[in-house]
Specification:
The complex is a heterodimer. Helices cover 22% and strands 28% of the residues of chain A. By secondary structure, chain A is an alpha/beta fold. Chain A starts with a helix and ends in a 33-residue tail after the last strand. Chain B is built from seven helices and six strands. In chain B, the strands form two sheets. Chain B has a four-stranded parallel sheet. In chain B, strands 1-2 form a two-stranded antiparallel ribbon. Classes of the chains: A alpha/beta, B alpha/beta. At the A-B interface, loops of A face loops of B.
Chain lengths: 150, 223
C-alpha cells in the first residue's frame, strides 16, 4: 500500500483527520476517533507493528498523545496524534487493539498522568509506587525534593 | 617575629603585614553549602570495638606501651590496605571503566584488590555511576551488609554530585547523601588510570587509619 492509497483511504473513512507529511504519515485526529482509527490502521492499512506511544505537554493547550504504528511489509508508517484539550487527562487506550501498547501507556501514565480508559493494568512502571506527581509534565518543578535522598 | 632593619636601632622592627585572607569562595556557592549540610559523615561507631579500645588503652597507658599500640596499628593498617576487596557492584557507564580497571590490563590484584561478589566479604564499595532515588535504598542496604571497617569510593561526576543529571527528577545529588564517602574520583567517566589513582589514595588513607576512627588526609606527623 502506497502513501497515496493510504491517504485516500483515510480521507474516505476519517474526513476530519488531518493528514500531512511523507514518511511517517502524520495523522492528527480528534480524541473520540483515536481507538477507531487505530483499529482501521491495523485492519485496513495493515499497520500491525506498534512502534511507540508517548505524549507531549503543550502547557495551556493541554496534552497531546502520540503513537506510531508501522506496516513493515509495505513500508508504510503512521504517526497518530491527538490533542486531549486543556485540563483533560483521559484518553482511550489502544491495548485492546495493540498489545504492544500496554507498557508504553503505563509509561505515559507514569510520566504524564494520562489515564488510559480500557487499559487492563494501569500502574506506574518506572517510578516507585509511592511517587507523587508526574515528572515529565511542565508543571513539575525542577529539583522537587524527595526525602530522604534529595 | 619581625624583621630588623640593618643599621637601625635594634628595637625598631618592621612587622610583616597581617594578610587578609578572603573567605573561601565556595562558601557562597549554594550547591556546596547544600553539600556541607547534607553529606553523610562517618558514624560515631565507626571504630574498633569497645573491647579492643579498652585493651589498647590499657597497653597505651603503660610506660613504653605506645610502641606496642603504634606497631599494632601500623600492622593492622598494613594488613587492611593490602587486602581491600571491592564488592562487585556497578551502576552505570562508569562500571565499564571500573571493570577495565579490575581486569588484567590494569590489574588491581597486584594491590591486593580482588573484586568479590559478596558484600559480606568486602571492604570497599566503588559507587560507579548515577544513583537514582529508586536505587539508593538498595545501595544503602549493600553498604550496610559490608562488615566494618568499610570504605567507599565515589567514582565519576554522577556519583560525586549528580553530574549532568543533577537537576533530573530521579537522581540523588551525590552518593554522599546516602553513604559516607572516602575518596571522590572526578571524571565523566574517569579512565582506569584515574580510578587507580583513587584506589591508591584510598590505600594511603587506610594506612593512616587511627584507633579513633578518624580518616583525615594522611599526615604522618599527626599522632
Amino acid at each position: 500500500m502506497t502513501r497515496e492509497q493510504a491517504t485516500t483511504l483515510i480521507g474516505e473513512r476519517f474526513g476530519v483527520a488531518q493528514v500531512e507529511g511523507e514518511s511517517p504519515l502524520v495523522v492528527t485526529l480528534p480524541v473520540d476517533q483515536w481507538a477507531s482509527f487505530a483499529r482501521f490502521a491495523k485492519e485496513t492499512l495493515g499497520c500491525r507493528f506498534f512502534s511507540f506511544s508517548t505524549a507531549v505537554d503543550w502547557k495551556e493547550q493541554g496534552l497531546e498523545v502520540v503513537a506510531k504504528v508501522d506496516n513493515l511489509d509495505e513500508r508504510l508508517s503512521l504517526l497518530m496524534k491527538t490533542k486531549l484539550g486543556a485540563g483533560v487527562t483521559t484518553c482511550p487506550s489502544l491495548v485492546p487493539i495493540y498489545r504492544g501498547a500496554n507498557w508504553m501507556e503505563r509509561e505515559c501514565y507514569d510520566m504524564f498522568g494520562i489515564r488510559f480508559e480500557g487499559h487492563p493494568d494501569l500502574r506506574r512502571i518506572l517510578l516507585s509506587e509511592d511517587w507523587e506527581g508526574h515528572p515529565l509534565l511542565k508543571s513539575y518543578a525542577v529539583d522537587t525534593p524527595h526525602p530522604p535522598y534529595r | 617575629m619581625g624583621l630588623c632593619v640593618p643599621g637601625a636601632h635594634p628595637r625598631v622592627e618592621i612587622k610583616p603585614p597581617i594578610p587578609i585572607i578572603p573567605a573561601p569562595i565556595w562558601k557562597n556557592i549554594k550547591d556546596l553549602q547544600e553539600w556541607e549540610q547534607l553529606h553523610q559523615k562517618r558514624p560515631e561507631g565507626d571504630k574498633h570495638s569497645a573491647a579492643f579500645e579498652s585493651i589498647t588503652e590499657g597497653i597505651h597507658s603503660f610506660p613504653g606501651g605506645f610502641v606496642v599500640t603504634t606497631l599494632a596499628d601500623a600492622f593492622f593498617n598494613w594488613a587492611r590496605k593490602s587486602s581491600v576487596w571491592p564488592v562487585t557492584f556497578g551502576l552505570a557507564c562508569c562500571a565499564i571503566e571500573m571493570m577495565a580497571t579490575f581486569a588484567s590490563r590494569f590489574d588491581v590484584e597486584r594491590l591486593g584488590m580482588v573484586p568479590w561478589a559478596s558484600p559480606r566479604h568486602s571492604d570497599l564499595m566503588v559507587v560507579s555511576g548515577t544513583v537514582t532515588i529508586k536505587m539508593a535504598p538498595m545501595l544503602e542496604r549493600i553498604y550496610a551488609q559490608m562488615p566494618d571497617p568499610k570504605w567507599a569510593v565515589s567514582m565519576g561526576s554522577c556519583a560525586n554530585s549528580g553530574g549532568p543529571f543533577r537537576h533530573g527528577y530521579h537522581v540523588v545529588k551525590g552518593v554522599d547523601r546516602v553513604i559516607p564517602v572516602d575518596v571522590y574520583v572526578p571524571g565523566c567517566p574517569p579512565p582506569p588510570e584515574s580510578l587507580l589513582n583513587g584506589l591508591l589514595l584510598l590505600q594511603e588513607q587506610i594506612a593512616h587509619f587511627r584507633r579513633t576512627g578518624e580518616r583525615a588526609a594522611p599526615n604522618p606527623k599527626v599522632d
